[in-house]
Amino acid sequence: MSRALAWIRKSKGDDGDIGLEEQREVVPGLAAELADEVERLDLGVHTGFSTMTRDDESGLLDQNERVTERINELRSGRFDYLVALDDRRVCRDEYLRVIQYAAGQGNTEIVYVGEVNKDDLTFDLKRRIERDTKEEEIEKSRRAIERRKEQGYDHGRPRFGMTYDANGHYQVPGEEFDTVTEIFQLDDAEKSRREIADEVDVPVATVQNVLDRREWYVEREQIAEM
Description:
Strand order of the largest sheet: 2-1-3-4
Radius of gyration: 19 Å
Number of domains: 2
């Protein structure tokens, strides 16, 4: 099942602005066309700047726990698509590169409803080149993934607690697999996601991802023991 993250944000105004209402309609709409399941990161009215360009005690994009958890999920491969109205609705400074890199690590394709902002032509051209390069990388990655699938191999960045075998073909338990096992044990003990995250010292999003893929982890552990 494919999954998309609908990223919604506006820098100014209030939560009932037409611009936000439009995003809340068209961004999840496109996401639903691309993927079977859609999750939202609805930041409402929120700054698009980060600590990379602003000196502030709180309230910046990379200081928002909801944002950082979603970026961790992008990095872990939870989403097939990241959908936004345009790139400036995602971020307005160099933190966009961090988000793009996380998406690349998780083989997540970034899709925009509209074209990028053309007000700053120099920066816009730079971003267009980056986007075209990214699209080429995505296409190459797709072809590589298809070849691996045809051969029955795993693909993408190893999931939490896993690593690739010596031949680089299959994911097997890695150095942090003990943490995966501990997450399962704590879940069996009916601990909450937050309690488990605090106990094993990983983000809540990581705990959720591991539990969502419990059967997969069990199968891979059994295969590795054969």
